[in-house]
Design brief:
This protein is mainly α. The chain is about 75% helix and about 0% strand. It is built from 16 helices and 2 strands.
C-alpha cells in the first residue's frame, strides 16, 4: 500500500523512517560507482595499463562531456513518462547497466598500446556512465517529489548523505585493501569490481523497486519542448542558475581531491593502509553531523549553514598541504602499527573535515529541492527531472574536469607512469599531488563561495518581489 501521495501545498506530514531508508540506500551503490572510478581509475590506468596521466584524464573526460547532454535528456524523458509508468523503469535499467559496466571497466588488461588501453577504458566508462545517468537523474528528482515541505526534503537529503557514507567506506576505503587481499594485479582489480558490483546492484534496486511506488502519478502540468528549449528555460531562473554554478565549482574542488587520494596516502602519507581508518573516521563524523546540521538549519536556514560548512572545509583543506610521512613514532595501534605525529594529525583531521564536507553536500542538495519548489509555485509547472538532470550533469562534468586537471598537473610535475605497479616519484611529483589534494580544491571552493552570493541575491530579490505583490490591494 502506498504510504505517500503527492503532497499538497505546504504539507508538513512527517515522512516515515522506512521511506527515508528506502530512498537513502540507493545512494550507497550510486556512491560506490561515483567514487571508485574517480579515486582509482587514474591509478588503474597509470600503474596497470601504462597510460600517461594526461591521457588518463582525457579518457575520463570524454564520457563526461557526453553526459552534459545525456543527463538533461534523461530528465526530460522521465518527466514525460512519469504520469504513465513513473520513474521506476529508469532506475531499474540504470542500476543494471551501471553495474555491468562497472565490472567490465576494471577487468581490462593485457594492452601493449597505452592509447588502445585508454580508448577501451573511455568506451566502457561511457556506457556505464549512461546507465548511471538513467538511475541518478530520476533518483535526484524523486527527492523533490516525496514532500512539499522544506524540512522534510532536508530529511530526505540527510538520509541520502548518511547512506552515501557507506558508499564512501566501500568505494574509497575498502577498494585498495580488497585489491591487495586478492593478490593485487589484474586479478585483484577484477575481484574488487565483481564484489562491489553486487553491493551496488542490490542497494540501487532496493530504491528502484520500492520508492517510485510511493509517489502518486496524478497528472500535473509540465513544460513541453525539446532539450535546448527546456535548458534555456531552466537557466532563466536566476536562483537555479547561480546554484548550479556554485555546485559545479564545489564538485570540481571535491573531485580534485578524490582523484589523487590514493596517491596521497601512498606517496605523501607513506602508508596506504591508513585510507580505510581515515575513511571510517570521516564516516563517523558525517553520521554525527547530520542531526546537528538539521538542527542548525531549522534555526539559521540552509544558506547560512552552507556558507559555514564551506568556509570550514576550505580552511581544513588548505592545512592538508603540510601532510608528510613523519620520521617519529608517536603511537602504535593494533592493525595499523607505528604512526608518526603527522599521520595521527591526519587521521584526527578527518573528523572535522567530515563534519563540514557532509554539511555543504546536505545543504546544496536541499537548496536544489527548495529551488525546484519555488519554481513550481511561481510557474505552476512541474519539471523535477529537467532540473535534476542539469544538476546531475553538473556533478558528472566536475568528475571529468578534475581528473583532467589532475592529469595535467601531475604530468607537469614529472609523475612517471608504469605498467608494473607504483614506483618511486620525485619530490616535485609528490608536491603536485599535494597541491591537487589541498591548495587547488581550496581555491576552487573559494570561487564556489563567491558564486553562492549570486544565489543569495537572486533569492533575496524574489522574496522582495513576492512581498511587494502580497502588499498590493486585492
Amino acid at each position: 500500500m502506498k504510504d505517500i501521495r503527492r503532497m499538497p501545498e505546504r504539507d508538513t506530514r512527517v515522512l516515515s523512517f522506512s521511506t527515508l531508508a528506502r530512498y537513502g540506500i540507493g545512494q550507497t551503490g550510486a556512491q560506490v560507482f561515483r567514487d571508485t572510478p574517480a579515486a582509482l581509475l587514474p591509478i588503474f590506468m597509470t600503474t596497470l595499463l601504462g597510460v600517461e596521466p594526461w591521457m588518463a584524464g582525457i579518457a575520463v573526460i570524454i564520457p563526461k562531456l557526453w553526459l552534459i547532454i545525456f543527463d538533461p535528456l534523461v530528465g526530460i524523458w522521465s518527466d514525460r513518462v512519469k504520469e504513465r509508468v513513473g520513474r521506476g523503469p529508469f532506475l531499474i535499467i540504470g542500476a543494471l547497466l551501471t553495474n555491468i559496466g562497472f565490472i567490465c571497466l576494471f577487468s581490462l588488461s593485457g594492452f601493449t598500446n597505452p592509447v588502445a588501453a585508454a580508448a577501451a577504458v573511455s568506451a566502457i566508462f561511457l556506457l556505464a556512465s549512461c546507465g548511471f545517468s538513467a538511475f541518478s537523474v530520476p533518483y535526484l528528482a524523486i527527492a523533490s517529489e516525496l514532500s512539499s515541505d522544506a524540512q522534510q526534503r532536508s530529511r530526505i537529503i540527510a538520509s541520502r548523505v548518511t547512506f552515501a557514507i557507506l558508499g564512501v567506506i566501500i568505494g574509497v576505503g575498502l577498494a585498495q585493501p580488497m585489491i591487495a587481499l586478492f593478490g593485487g594485479g589484474s586479478h585483484g582489480w577484477r575481484m574488487m569490481a565483481a564484489i562491489f558490483s553486487v553491493v551496488c546492484l542490490v542497494t540501487m534496486l532496493v530504491t528502484a523497486l520500492t520508492v517510485p511506488r510511493l509517489i502518486d502519478r496524478t497528472p500535473t502540468p509540465a513544460q513541453q519542448g525539446g532539450l535546448f528549449s527546456q535548458l534555456f528555460e531552466a537557466f532563466q531562473h536566476r536562483d537555479f542558475r547561480w546554484l548550479t554554478i556554485t555546485y559545479l565549482l564545489q564538485c570540481v574542488g571535491q573531485a580534485s581531491g578524490y582523484t589523487v587520494i590514493g596517491f596521497v596516502f601512498f606517496y605523501n602519507v607513506g602508508n596506504v593502509n591508513l585510507i580505510l581508518p581515515f575513511v571510517l573516521i570521516m564516516s563517523v563524523g558525517s553520521v554525527i553531523s547530520q542531526p546537528i546540521w538539521l538542527a542548525l538549519a531549522r534555526r539559521f536556514g540552509n544558506p547560512a549553514c552552507f556558507t559555514a560548512s564551506n568556509i570550514g572545509w576550505i580552511l581544513l583543506t588548505i592545512s592538508a598541504f603540510t601532510i608528510r610521512p613523519g620520521t617519529d613514532v608517536l603511537t602504535t595501534l593494533p592493525l595499523l602499527g607505528p604512526l608518526s605525529t603527522q599521520q595521527v594529525i591526519l587521521l584526527a583531521r578527518g573528523l572535522p573535515l567530515a563534519f563540514f564536507n557532509s554539511g555543504f553536500l546536505l545543504f546544496v542538495l536541499s537548496m536544489l529541492t527548495d529551488t525546484i519548489d519555488r519554481i513550481r509555485r511561481r510557474s505552476g509547472q512541474v519539471n523535477e527531472g529537467v532540473f535534476s538532470g542539469i544538476f546531475s550533469a553538473t556533478e558528472k562534468l566536475s568528475f571529468a574536469i578534475a581528473p583532467l586537471i589532475g592529469g595535467v598537473v601531475m604530468s607537469l610535475c614529472g609523475f612517471v607512469a608504469s605498467t608494473g605497479g607504483a614506483q618511486a616519484q620525485s619530490q616535485e611529483a609528490m608536491t603536485g599531488i599535494l597541491m591537487l589534494y589541498s591548495l587547488i580544491p581550496a581555491g576552487i571552493l573559494t570561487l564556489s563561495a563567491l558564486a553562492f552570493t549570486g544565489y543569495l541575491a537572486a533569492v533575496r530579490r524574489e522574496t522582495m518581489a513576492g512581498a511587494a505583490v502580497a502588499s498590493l490591494p486585492a
